[in-house]
Design goal:
The protein is mainly α. It has a single domain, classed as lambda repressor-like DNA-binding domains (434 Repressor (Amino-terminal Domain)). The chain is 54% helix and 0% strand. Helix 1 packs across helix 2 and helix 2 packs across helix 3.
Length: 83
Amino acid sequence: MSTNVDRALARAIQLAGGQSALARAVGYTQNAIWKAKTCGRVTAELAVKIEKATNGKVRREQLAPKIFDPKTVTPITDDEAVA
C-alpha cells in the first residue's frame, strides 16, 4: 500500500518524465530521487524544489507532511491523471 508521500513523489516523477529528468530539474542526482522514492521520505529542501519544478502541481505539504503543515495536505489519489 502506498502512502500519500509515495503517490506525490510518483506523480512528480511522472510529471517530470522520469527520475533522471526530475533529478535534473531539482539539481539532485537520480540516485537521490530513487532513495527518496524507496524510503518514502523527502527532505524539506527537496520537497520545495520539487514543488517549484512541478509548478505547484505537487506541493511540499504532500511530499513532506511531517515537516510542513499537514492540515494543508491535499492527498494524491492513485487514479489521478497527470495533466
